[in-house]
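Hi everyone,

Forwarding the result from last night's run.
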Amino acid sequence: MVAGWFTHDSGEEDFRLLGTRCTACSSVFFPPEDTFCRNPACQGGELAQVPLSKRGRVWSYTDGRYRPPAPYVSDPDVPWEPYTLVAVELEAERMVVLGQAAPGVTVADLTVGTEVEVVPGVLDEDAGTVRTTWHWRPVGVTR
């Protein structure tokens, strides 16, 4: 889990990505920014943590079918499991956030414009440590 990127002490209903908003220009950033406003037209202001929209629309998507080549770390003894990657447009924040689709959601379940919601997910588990992340799931799907 990356501290400060999402709520983590709540259930699925309250799970949200967390960003920052500049008080001077109202630009919103994700991942959160804690040093300065990234808007080049802004002279800067205070940065405040804000929850991002829970729902958005698929802007783009693809599937990861192949094990990454060297120099990326990938254990050849662990079977490769394809995954779906989704870019989601959050209209209110005027941004696109990338993330994996929820387990069981494939490219066949998505089209550009599909409404999706952010849900908690598991990135991996190692020696009893669970690394939490976020996933995108089509609205109304409960798998």
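The radius of gyration is 17 Å.

Cheers,
N.
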